[in-house]
Amino acid sequence: MSVENTASSKPHIHIAPSVMCADLCNLEADIRELETAGIDMLHFDLMDAHFVPNMPIGLVLIQQLRAKTDCTFDIHLMVENNDFFVDAVAEIGVQQIAVHVESATHLDRTLSLIRAHGIKAGAALNPATPLSALDYVLERLDFVLIMTVNPGFAGQKVVPATLRKIAECRAFLDKRGINLPIEVDGNVSFENIPKMVSAGADILVGGTSSVFHKSGSRTENIQQAQQAITLGLAHRGG
Question: Is residue 7 part of a domain?
Fold first, then answer.
């Protein structure tokens, strides 16, 4: 699966529903409706209650769901012991993993471990973490994850500076001649999606303010999110 941007065509923007925001008591039904709506990627926030003070889902849920769907599994590690969880989810069978630069003691080694498993490697940045933290691991990256809220909980308001950060990340990569997808996680709302896509986002982690919004069904919310993406692409450069 490619989410690359090219100068000759507009990119395909992926919506990655955040599983922690789904109805966990009826998760398979939720996934089936999302698949019918055209979703081919699911986002899993895997936390350890140390790096962030929350633990909404665990390894067993991811393992059991793997047998239920062919969707791409996008794992966002918010943990202290990154290498342990990389090995654990690699055994389950996932397609991409993002680790936080703030928690990785040896970031280059951890990114190399992910890629050694044949999995796409991403670096996640908290709102206050500068883009310069990526400078010496760019050769190890397959995507960048920009947090637009402080990690750990759904339903937060976007940190204002992070919308600017998405655009600056795109410029940061372009300046270095590197074409990587930018994933955005945090208050990816119907209102914010056009701004995020216009700024350069390629993968949108949809939670309670879009995909799982109480105002509509999963299918209706996906359709509304896609309309918002179209608005953002209309104002996107390149």
Answer: no
Q: Which residues of the chain have pLDDT under 50?
A: 1-8
pLDDT for the residue numbered 110: 98
Residue 224: left (phi > 0), alpha (psi -120 to 50), or beta? Answer: alpha
Q: Could you tell me the pTM of the whole model?
A: 0.93
Angle between helices 218-234 and 27-36 (to 10 degrees): 50
Tokens of 174: 């372009």
Reported in sequence order, the residue ranges of the chain that DSSP labels E, i.e. its strands, are: 14-17, 41-47, 72-78, 96-100, 120-125, 143-147, 182-185, 203-206
The pLDDT score that the predictor gives to residue 49 is 86
CATH number at residue 24: 3.20.20.70
Dist. CA 152–CA 8, nearest whole Å = 38
Give the residue numbers annotated as catalytic, written as ranges.
45, 185
What is the number of other CB atoms lying within 10 angstroms of the CB of residue 68?
11
Are 75 and 95 a contacting pair, CB within 8 Å?
no
* CA 215 – CA 48 distance, rounded (Å): 31
Within a domain: 5: no
